[in-house]
């Protein structure tokens, strides 16, 4: 998805990249919280 979006105009990719394949695990939850904080800062 990152590859598809990076070709678009006026798109800012915000890290960290989060991968969810099934149920939300604790480490994924922490990355989602960090991503949310980074989105608010962007």
Properties at a glance:
mainly alpha, single chain, about 40 residues, about 50% helix, flat
Order of helices and strands: HH
Percent in helix: 40-55%
How many structural domains? 1
The average pLDDT is 85
User: Could you tell me the strand content as a percent range?
Assistant: under 5%
- The span between the termini is 20 Å
Which stretches of 5+ consecutive residues score pLDDT under 50? none
Provide an overview of this structure.
It is built from two helices and no strands. The mean pLDDT is 85. The protein has helices at residues 2-6, 26-41. It is flat and about 35 Å long. The protein has one domain (2-41). By secondary structure, the protein is mainly α.
């Amino acid at each position: 998805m990152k590859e598809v979006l990076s070709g678009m105009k006026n798109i800012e990719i915000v890290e960290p990249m989060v991968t969810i394949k099934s149920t939300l695990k604790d480490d994924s939850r922490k990355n989602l919280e960090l991503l949310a904080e980074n989105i608010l800062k962007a």
